Amino acid sequence: TQLLEQSPQFLSIQEGENLTVYCNSSSVFSSLQWYRQEPGEGPVLLVTVVTGGEVKKLKRLTFQFGDARKDSSLHITAAQPGDTGLYLCATDGGGSNYKLTFGKGTLLTVNP
Amino acid sequence: KAGVTQTPRYLIKTRGQQVTLSCSPISGHRSVSWYQQTPGQGLQFLFEYFSETQRNKGNFPGRFSGRQFSNSRSEMNVSTLELGDSALYLCASSPGQELVTGELFFGEGSRLTVL
Predict the structure, then answer these.
(1) Cis ω on the peptide bond leading into residue B39 (within 30° of 0)?
(2) Considering only Cβ atoms within 10 Å of each terminal Cβ, which end of chain A, N or C, has fewer?
């Protein structure tokens, strides 16, 4: 099973600051998904990256997939309290195993 | 359209009891997955069903079981509860036709506390 390491584990910042969280693996990702889980809710998919070097933007969120497809980052510009939540990366590991392996997540708190 | 519905949302049990959790997927979705979420271990895969067939099972003891019905609704059961089974149990659905996992649509979860 592919292991995903996310850092930092916790992040508390003020509204308006920028931040970056990371997801790394010792193995190559077939593809990588980023989810956000708000308190009391289930995770919601933000983006899927597939191609090495790929960059995707979702409003103030920028997702990068490393050239070697072993790492990914999520950058948030001008964070807002509504960005508060647990950010999870996940991979299917390739193949037809019908499951996702998740990192333990980065818990982000954006203070007003 | 309606999202994934899980019942009950909260429940408290004592050690040794059993529990059954229910999940209704998004209409038209035939794949249902179950995950256990704890602060220490994060989200861990329990099992996945498609058209009433279990296609994969995670590394959990046999006390954890599940099934899927012909209408795609799913249940999971945990027997002989232990304190360590306290967790948020998340159900997710997807169309399921693809060979590899695409986007999962999660419910709000069932929070189980074992005393």
Answers:
(1) no
(2) C
Chain B residues contacting A via beta carbons under 8 Å: 4, 31, 33, 35, 41-45, 48, 50, 55-56, 58, 90, 92, 99-109
Residues from chain B that touch A95, judged by Cβ atoms under 8 A, are 100
Q: How far is A17 from chain B (nearest CA, A)?
A: 27
Q: Taking the CB of residue B3, how many other CB atoms lie within 10 A of it?
A: 14
Write the DSSP string, A18-86: -EEEEEE-SS--S-EEEEEE-TTS--EEEEEE-STT-EEEETTEEEEE-TTSSEEEEEESS--GGG-EE
| Structure confidence by residue, pLDDT tens digits, A13-22 | 999 999 999 9
Residues B108, A42: C-beta atoms closer than 8 Å? yes
pLDDT score recorded for residue A112: 95
Facing B45 at nearest CB: one of A33, A43, A100: A100
For B32-74, the pLDDT digits (tens) are 999 999 999 999 999 999 999 999 999 999 999 999 999 999 9
Q: What is the pLDDT of residue A26?
A: 84
The distance of A77 to chain B (nearest Cα, Å) reads 25
Percentage above 70 pLDDT, chain A: 96
| CB-CB under 8 Å, A99 with B33 | yes
Cβ proximity of A11 and A17 under 8 Å:
no
pLDDT for residue B97 is more than 70: no
